Amino acid sequence: MQDLSNADCIVIQGSNMAECHPVAYQWVTEARLKGARVIHVDPRFTRTSATADKHIPIRAGSDVVLLGALIKYILDNELYFKEYVVAYTNAATIVSEKFQDTEDLDGLFSGYDDEKGSYSQETWAYASNDGADDETPGTIGGPAAGHEHGHTKSERAAGDEHGSGGPALEHAKVLRDETLQDPNSVFQILKKHYARYTPEMVADTCGIGVDDFEYLARSVTENSGRERTTAFVYAVGWTQHTLGAQFIRTAAIVQLLLGNMGRPGGGIMALRGHASIQGSTDIPTLYNILPGYLAMPVAGLHDTWDDYLGAIGNKEQKGFWANADTYAVSLLKAWWGKAATAENDWCFDYLPRLSGAHGTYQTTMAMLDDQVEGYFLLGQNPAVGSAHGRMQRQAMSHLKWLVVRDFNMIESATFWKDGPEIASGELKTEDIGTEVFFLPAAAHTEKSGSFTQTQRMLQWHHQAVEPPGDCQSELQFFYELGRRVRELLADSTDERDRPLLDLTWDYPTDEHGEPDAEAVLAEVNGRHLTGDKAGEPLSSYTEMKADGSTDGGCWIYTGVYADGVNHAAARKPGREQDLTALDWGWAWPANRRILYNRASADPEGNPWSERKRYVWWDAEAGKWTGHDVPDFVPDKAPSYRPEPGTGGPAGLAGDDPFVMQADGKGWLFAPKGMLDGPLPTHYEPQESPVSNPLYAQQSNPARKVFPRKDNLWSPSGDAPGADVYPYVFTTYRLTEHHTAGGMSRWLPYLSELQPEFFCEVSPELAAERGLENGGWATIVSARAAIEARVMVTERMTPLVVRGRTIHQIGLPYHWGVGSNAIVSGDAANDLLGVALDPNVQIQESKAGSCDIVPGRRPAGDELLRLVAEYQSRAGSTVMTSNELRTGHPESTPDTRGG
Amino acid sequence: MGFWRNQLSGPTDPAADAAWETSEPRKGFFTDTSICIGCKACEVACKEWNGVPEDGLDLLSQSYDNTGALGASTWRHVAFVEQTSDRIEQARESGRKLVSLGMPSVRSGDEPALAGGGGTATATLTDTLTDNPVPDVRWLMASDVCKHCTHAACLDVCPTGALFRTEFGTVVVQDDVCNGCGYCVAACPFGVIERRSGNEGHEKGPQSHGISIKGAGGAGDTAKGSHQNQPAHASSNGEVKNVGIAQKCTLCYDRLGAGQTPACAQACPTTSIKFGDLDEMRATARARVAQLHELGYPEARLYGVDEHDGVGGTGSTFLLLDEPEVYGLPPDPRVTTADLPDMFRKAGYAGLTMLAMAAAAFVGRRK
């Protein structure tokens, strides 16, 4: 994070960093004081824009066009960092001849499957001589499973598996043309793909003028190269779209072309939304992955241990994911201890198997179908914080029981008596059978443990006071729950209870029953189980074995408890160490602060420049050294070349810096991993007042849609009825509140700073609709109508897109309807529908269509009639904007849902 | 008279004037509004540390400012000012005029105080990119606070001695001595100090929740023993302390005594609020304004550094990007007691004249 202060230029896009990450923003301030240029690209002029050198307003959801134009600018003007690109990226790698681009297929890549609404990725594969006939080269598949279809990958949101490196490949025997001239080379494909992303296209799509684009392009390119680096910063303004993952991929291409990855002041900073959101994917609270980004096994695909091992990594691919078997065995040993043996495949069959998509939104819909009996909410307030609040509350009213663990009586705990649906008459308290258990939670000062923050750094917090009354930590709650369930089952002979009964569940507790958090950390770190070192903590994940002689609950965290020391608790003040500050907290992997930092040195191992010196090869000592923990095999010389076909870490050449990628290279083109295309391409949001200027294909053809009566959409583009919801709305947070308000709307000092829900509109829109500053407005989407106080501000800029003025409305989403908070109000998220990105199944909450009118909304039945009247005028049906393929007269539009 | 003049106006060491024999270096703030991000962490940290109650829950419809003004229950206030290019142009113009009047502008031979590695390389950018054009919109944010004046009118007029000058040169109210007379409220040229009201807050609106905090489920739904969000300052019967008593920033006198930084400066994530010896604060401020001028922001200016102004300079120094009035600050604050010597002098002359006339009358009668 502090490395941002090394940047010469910082582009903050898809993030309101100053407001949502004010503490981290000190490093942007620091960079700026040192002379760096800071550019904020955002639909709104925010507190980030106020302290940036320049704010560039953009139409929500059009970022791929802007970044794609940047790629074209870099390629056309030959501004890419040539040595870096050739040596460190896959620019020279040859792709299968069967690959066809969206430019050839009017918005589709080759391999689109109308039946399944997703891609087969076979034609995107790297070419290979391996297994080829005489004429045409073959391709490199995934390990074992070959080319797994995008449909099954999407069902399990397989994109989440790439939280610590790229997807697995069959092997790394790629074909390369380092002159970059081969028409099937990634470099040439890239050139062709972005040929139409001109500054004029930017103006016509994003509403950004040619001068502003020029300013951005020059700032970024003039601040990149040997001597200088540019950093990108994003948050959920990029991710929460139906092609969110591709927004980030586009930035990755820009940064790889400019040579800004793995170098000080470079990279792409992903800002996570809460204190330990990074931790909650590392050691996941997700349905689809296991700790350390190991895949959750899928029924039919990973039925046997060998199937599973073959899918998560391959001994013939390069890099550290080739050792995935050691990580998986150590995990199972940590969970099931002595019960896990080679004979029973380390208890692999104790793991559940996925039978489909079970993300939060699918679960919500399953509740509506009475398929879910109970629900735990831990620090989550879906009645306010999740997309489509009405669907969330309706769904919870179908549960038999609901456990809410929180500090306060949040709206998700009281929706059954004071929610908006009670007020509108849709639900009646006496008809709701949900039994709600409210269990008070301990705050972070009342328990010990670690947060893993945005730069993968674990920071330990020590308990300062005992939790008051009945408040408990999550650790204690789940430990107790497990203990009691095991007690109940103690005499069971049922096979299905074995996984619970065989669990290692033996943490020491203090006099209040609180388990020792450090004991959990030690288990996460892993131990030697046999030999001289039996019982000692592992010091690195490279010590993990697949023979059951080690355990470890999350391989990427191994080392945090090396030598029995809690390194997450390291707190040497910054003034007593250098900027890298390796003695503050502990960052995974291996306490490394910048990933892929081998790329900060040239292929020979020397720093690219004195100014950007970071990690380099010390020829005399025969090892890598520098300001950070080198991200490379410590003693592998830059000149090292492996025998062709060598797999694993040994297969990495001395100049393969991307050690978690199956070919050791940074991927400009993603032959595997991305389910909606190997290259990012622009599609409009699910709901958009604008037609896609690039293709007849309006929106991401692989996105996940849910055609249902309670999930209607506005018509998009030129479709009839689109003018009923003529404005774009975008949702966001304010500094003064925390997400759905559970930690802020109950506190007087925060509530008084932003007491009411408001909407931000431009003076032009205010004039057009008769809105007054401080007055009320009603905002109507195809799902709901809500009311907000009006803030008329010059900070909202109408954008002109192809001659048409597009107004955007800003809606902070912190308020909810209930009776317990100090401040309450309508919830902005009620306006949203459910449409998801196919890679990671995140909802599109940053761009939607709405209308706005002056005055307060009606109540009761009249409110429902207002929403229905709009739907009827727009002619919205369950298929409106839900067709996956559009504008292809030769094919029937696909009508299936996700 | 010279002694009096030093006490009531112009440059002086206020702690020495207040007869501290072993005073500390004078302490103060430098608030650099050019790097303020308006997060209001200063407001919250101040209230948390000092136990200041909540101050009203009204949406003020003044940009993101729902605090309104400094007062008895608001000791830090972040102002939000939205401007379009015409107003920004005016701010630049007034800034240029100040520079021509001798405000610090182009850096002298000193090394740039804040420029780092990027400084030299910036020159490789072309001219058009280093230009600093007037933007369409800007959003000013500034955290205001008590000025801790060199010549503090509040202290001068206090009849009970509740307000006193500390060894750090700051001005502090003693709650238990104040009798609530309110002379200080009228005397403060900045409108900072205020008496705390009970049930109705200051001008902003009803002050309801500071006294009856709704905890976790006030309606009785609360599971036993969950967190009660009652701030430490509100007693169990829900009463606000110090009703009727004059209240303002103490510059965290209790923290200073323990060698700590005031809560607001400690919490500020961007170092917009700096704390330290006043001499250093003023030097840092001068260096920063010079840097901003060099970077093409002629609108930057300092507030409170002039020891010859109406309050003898302030202990809180500000770097502003527009005229003080834009932020709600008086352009030419003047201590209300500054005229006391003159008034005494004039009263003296008047008395002497009267005496002379009386004497003359007697003399005349003799004639």
Please provide a written account of the structure.
The complex is a heterodimer of chains A (898) and B (367). Chain A has 898 residues and is an alpha/beta fold. Chain A has 25 helices and 31 strands. In chain A, a hairpin with a 4-residue loop joins strand 4 and strand 5. About 16% of the residues of chain B have low confidence. Chain B has 2 domains: 283 residues, Alpha-Beta Plaits, CATH 3.30.70.20; 31 residues. By secondary structure, chain B is an alpha+beta fold. The longest helix of chain B is centred in the last third of the chain and has 27 residues. Helix content of chain B is 30%, strand content 13%. In chain B, a hairpin with a 5-residue loop joins strand 4 and strand 5. At the A-B interface, helix 2, helix 3, helix 9, strand 14 and helix 23 of A face helix 3, helix 5 and strand 3 of B.
Q: What brief labels describe this structure?
A:
A: 898 residues; Barwin-like endoglucanases; six-stranded mixed β-sheet; five-stranded parallel β-sheet; 25 helices; globular; B: 367 residues; Alpha-Beta Plaits; four-stranded mixed β-sheet; 10 strands; 30% helix
Coarse morphology of chain A: globular
Strand content of chain B: 5-15%
* Total DSSP E strands of chain A: 31
Q: What is the average per-residue confidence, as pLDDT of chain A, rounded to a whole number?
A: 95
SSE string of chain B: HHEHEHHHEHEEHEEHHEHEEH
Please identify the top-level CATH class of the domain at 704-874 in chain A: Mainly Beta
Helix content estimate of chain B: 25-40%
Subunit arrangement of the protein: heterodimer
Low-confidence stretches of chain B: 105-131, 200-224, 229-236
The number of distinct helices of chain A, counting runs of at least 4 residues, comes to 25
Number of helices of chain B: 12
- Judged by helices, strands and strand pairing, the structural class of chain A is alpha/beta
Q: Termini distance of chain A?
A: 37 Å
Helix content of chain A: 10-25%
Decide which structural class fits the backbone of chain B.
alpha+beta
- Specify the CATH class of the largest domain in chain B: Alpha Beta
